Amino acid sequence: MQYIINAPKSINTTVKLPASKSISNRAMIIYALSGGKTLPENLSDCDDTNVIVNAIQNMPDVIDIKAAGTAMRFLSAYLSVTEDTHTITGTERMKHRPIGVLVDALRFLGADITYLNEEGFPPLKITGRKHEGGYLEIPGSVSSQYISALLMIGPVLCKGLTLKLTGEIISRPYIDLTLWMMKEFGAEADWSDIDTITVKPKPYKSREYSIESDWSAASYWYETLALSDNYEDEIKFAGLMDGSMQGDSIARYLFSLMGVKTIFDSTKQGIPTTVTLKKLERHVPRLDYDFINSPDLAQTFVVSCALMDIPFKFTGLRTLKIKETDRIEALKTEMKKLGYIIKDENGDSLVWDGERCEPATDIAIDTYEDHRMALSFAPAAFKLPGIKINDPNVVTKSYPNFWNDMRNVGFIIDKK
Questions:
Q1: What is the mean pLDDT of the chain?
Q2: Known catalytic residue at 296
Q3: Which residues sit opposite 193 in a β-bridge?
Q4: How far apart are CA 384 and CA 388, in angstroms?
């Protein structure tokens, strides 16, 4: 299937954002480990969260997490400390996404995990049992989801967990988000040194919990306003917090450099409120930024900056190669269709110095089974009327209602 997208002449609307996928996924694992009886409120209805909810509620012998990398990592750790034997598997792409670092760490702590096909990759056979826990070292440069998966089982380990992160530590805000949520459920977990986290063997406490709206989803509406040519345009959301623990809330700062102002109705700490976005007439002439702590925003800013003629150098993108697709190569390929020559450096940077090429005559963006490709390229309709998005339903992975929200804002979306 293919969508053909045309942008509205003006926007003045309120968008109902989905709940945070990052918080929802962590809340479900902690809820299960706490023995909770009441599901967290305002859970995300995206594919990634749904597979975790279904797995925890039903615990089938074979758990298919489809394309949900977060679910593979979080559930592998959870199943390793939960009695019974399960097989966890996913899509063909998932079977080629590495998980060896996490499996090695879990085995070191006492887990019984067997690879069913290729060594270092799913599917996995996991027999859950009690782990001793203790001291563990893991590279800080691996996916923060490995680290979060280990941290969340820390309180149920006999000796707790002392986790030392060696080398460069990436995506630290996501680690801090995990620690914050663990403490919300009564755990004693925090940084005990610049590179070390200590989790006490103190069980979680069951509690009612409500999920904040998703800053990652908000970033695509920031992009929409940034690409609009109408300076009267305005977008509002509900349910975001000033001072949010979500790593992608940095989008608010970055888009302020690109001409989008954020206004909070309330700035009370920890209280979700209404946010208003307004378009400004000025933006930076160039944007250089290290996305090591928020790599999921890279696609949004590559598309936004290029279409706004803002040269850029984005670093800290090493993990993009092991996401739903190799996002570095996917971005280079799809941006070339639009007429932009994006270069990569050292496998962890994307650079655009203003170099252009002849754009495709009939632009159709491939999404590579990657939700963020569709989400980040859709707002380009402001600059490229009639842009086509292939396989648009990939957005269900994180933002199932995205296309309906686009229509409600005024975008015309035709199906082919």
A1: 95
A2: yes
A3: 196
A4: 10
Helical H segments across 98-185, by residue range = 100-109, 144-153, 172-184
Asked whether the beta carbons of 217 and 44 are under 8 A apart, the reply is no
pLDDT of residue 358: 95
The candidate with the shortest Cα–Cα distance to 335, out of 350, 316, 324, 313, is: 350
Sign of CA dihedral 254, 396, 211, 316: negative
State mean pLDDT over 145-150.
96
In the structure encoding, which two tokens stand for residue 263, read together? 């206004």
* Six-digit token string for 27: 């809340």
Question: Please, which residues have CB within 8 angstroms of residue 112's CB and are 6 or more apart in sequence?
Answer: 80, 126, 127, 128, 129
Torsion over CA: 254, 257, 263, 267 (sign): positive
Please identify which residue in the block is written with the tokens 């007429």: 339
Q: Is the domain covering 21-199 a CATH 3.65.10.10 domain?
A: yes
Indicate the DSSP class of residue 287: E
Helices 69-80/100-109 angle, 10° precision: 10
Judge whether residue 24 has pLDDT over 80. yes
- State which H helix or E strand residue 73 sits in: helix 69-80
Q: Write down the domain spans for the chain.
A: 2-19+212-415, 21-199
Q: What are 14's strand-pairing partners?
A: 236
Beta strands of 117-242 (E only): which ranges?
Answer: 124-128, 134-139, 161-166, 189-193, 196-199, 234-240
pTM for the structure as a whole:
0.86
For the segment 263-284, the average pLDDT, to the nearest whole number, is 90
Query: pLDDT tens digit string along 113-143?
Result: 999 999 999 999 999 999 999 999 999 988 8
In what side-by-side order are the strands of the sheet with 161-166? Answer: 134-139, 161-166, 196-199, 189-193
How is residue 197 annotated by DSSP? E
In this model, does residue 322 exceed pLDDT 90?
Answer: no
Kind of pairing, strands 84-89 and 124-128? antiparallel
Q: How confident is the model at residue 379, as a pLDDT?
A: 98
Superfamily per CATH, domain 2-19+212-415: Enolpyruvate transferase domain (3.65.10.10)
Selected catalytic residue, list 47, 233, 242, 296: 296
